[in-house]
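Let's practice the habit of predicting before peeking. Look at the sequence and jot down your guess about where helices and strands might fall. Then scroll down.
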Amino acid sequence: MIRPMRQVSRFLVLFASITAAIPGVVSASAQDAAPGTVKGRVRFEGAAPEVQAIKMSADPICMREGKNSTSEAILVGGDGSLQNVFVYVKDGLGERTFPAPTTAVVLDQKGCRYTPHVFGVQVGQGVEIVNSDPTLHNVHAMPKVNAEFNFGQPAQGMRARRTFAKPEVMVPLRCDVHSWMSSYAGVLAHPFFAVTKADGSFEIKALPPGTYVLEAWHERLGTRTQQVTVGDTKGATAAFTFTPRS
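Done guessing? Here is the structure:
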């Protein structure tokens, strides 16, 4: 009986190694999310738009610091993965409250562009705005719910801290000096959000067990929603697909 069992074990190992090498085939362990975790991927379906070069000729310093920069408005990978999508829990947390982190989110102005292009922050959490460029930048937040702010940072190395008092998805930030510079902040009362990476993946951790509505937001392509259930012993997976807007 020992020999047949060894043969079965060898077959299972060989089968797993073969399937792991086939594109599109994912093992069950890779698909399963850990307890309290929602993980997934966002894709773009259709012909991806061409990436547009940013013209920085209005500022010679930007031309040097941000050489060969391209727009981050729609970033689609070769496999259709969609970057810079803000994914967050829109509904399902009830009356739970969550303290704001004491660590600030850093929004840098480097190469005459905002980094990160899309980010999340909790209500009351600091946003540390940094000018890493040797040129004047202007930081102009244009919320609909929160208080607007608008200030200049004329020197390299300048820092300023701001907070948002109310949830708002999303708050656009612009530089009035350099029209191509933009960033978007998702302001939430909780920490359950993520921004998709270059491969379109995202992961939201530490969710209490329950059923939630997730929303995926993209600056040009709109929003998508999906319901997921996180259990006591198992997380959830989610997938969103965006298409070109007509």
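How did you do? The chain has one domain: 34-242.
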